[in-house]
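name: query_chain
kind: protein
chains: 1
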Amino acid sequence: MVGDDQDWGEHAACRTADPDELFVEGAAQNKAKAICTGCPVRTECLAHALDLRIEHGIWGGMTERERRALLRRRPLVTSWRRLLEAARSEHEQTPGAEDGQWGATG
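structure:
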């Protein structure tokens, strides 16, 4: 995790992008999502958008439609930040995770 709840945005890959590039529709969303690839705070960003139910823009590599679908599939989640950080921690401890491969639990 990078810092506390408030400073993760300072480390975001999109911090210097034009906001108009992140709040797009249609095929332009794929280009916007590409900015998130390899972002060091992608998890924090996605959790922020899910926890606050942000309806517009690309957050953590997901479109608003993708986030809505995720929220519908997991209605009982009370803290996406806690859930995503736990999943990331578990993944980092999985054999082969450093190679980008999933272990037996992935």
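note: The two ends are 21 Å apart (CA to CA).
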